[in-house]
Amino acid sequence: MEVEILATSSFAKHSILKLFDWRYAMQLREDHGVGPWNLYDEEGYRALVEEGGTAETLSDLEDGNGTTKHPLNTANEDDFLLDRCRHLHSCEIEAYNRLEDLQGTRVPRFFADVLLDDSPFENAPLEVRGVLLELVDGYHLSDIAKYAHPSSWQHICDEAIRTTNLISDHGILNEDIKPHNVLVRTPKNFSDYKIVIIDFAQCRFQEANQPEAAWRHEKWRQDEEGAIGYVMAQRLKGAFEYKASYRFLCACTNCRNI
Q1: How many CB atoms lie within 10 A of CB 208?
Q2: Whose CB among 3, 64, 81, 120 lies 3.0–4.6 Å from 17's, allowing a Cys bridge?
C-alpha cells in the first residue's frame, strides 16, 4: 500500500508499506485451503495462545515444495499462516540485504523493517511484520503494450532480463519472478527506460557451502530469465525476440532429459 510519511525523516514522503499480515493474505490462504479471515476464528486463536496452547510448526505442516502435508484445522491454521508470513518477511529482508548495491536502480530502495505489534500477550506476540520501500513511478512490464511504443519493446524486455540476471549474481533464486513483478520506470525521454524488479518474499538463497553444481541445477530448473523472456515473447507476438543465455545450464542427467 502507498503511505505518506508525516514525520521528518530520511525516507521518501510517499513510500510503499508492504505488510505480511496472515489475516489478509488472500492468495496465501487460498493456496493452503484456508478460508477468509473472520473475527470469530481469530478470537479463538488468541484464546489458544493466551492459554499456552501450541500448534504445529511450519516445518511440521509443510513439505519441501511449500504446500501443506495434510489439511489444516481451525486450531492450527492461523498459527501456520502467521509462521508462513514470518518466513516470507525474512526472505524479503535477506534479499534486500544482498541487493544493497542495486537499491534505487534495479530494485526499490529499502527504508525500514516494520513491526506492528498487535498482540496483548507478552509470551507469544502476534505481531505483523512488514517492509517500507521506495515508491517506484512506473508501470508493470505486463502492461508494456499500453504504455510504450512498439519500437522500444525489445530494449525494455532485454533490460528486464539483464536485471533478472544481475539479481541472480547476488546468490538469489526468485520463485516469484514474472512480468507483473517487473516495473518500468516512467522515462524522462523516449529511450530512458529503467527496469525495477519487486517482490522477493518467495526467494531461496545460495549458501556459502553449497556446491556450485547444486545451485546451477536449482537455477536451471527455475529458469527466471525464461519466466520473463518466453512469456513476453508470447505476449508481444513476435515484436520481441527472446534469446536464452543458458548461463545456468545444468549438465545433470535429469536436466539433459527435459
Answers
A1: 5
A2: 3
Burial of 34 (0-12, 13-18, 19+ CB in 10 A): buried
Which amino acid, residue 111?
A: F
What totals of helices (H) and strands (E) does the chain contain, helices first?
A: 9, 9
Residues 109-151: tens digit of each pLDDT = 999 999 887 655 554 457 789 999 999 999 999 999 999 999 9
- Alpha carbon 74 to chain centroid, angstroms: 27
**Residue 136 in grid coordinates:** 517506484
Mean pLDDT of the chain: 84
Please tell me whether residue 35 adopts helix, strand or coil conformation: coil
Q: Tell me if residue 20 falls in helix, strand or coil.
A: strand
Separation in Å, CA 151 to CA 147, 148, 225, 226: 12, 8, 21, 22
pLDDT tens by residue, 47-92 = 666 666 544 443 444 455 545 444 444 557 777 888 889 999 999 9
List residues bridging with 110 in a β-sheet. 133
Burial of 232-257, coded b for 16+ CB within 10 Å and e otherwise, reads bbebbeeebebeeeeebebeeeeeee
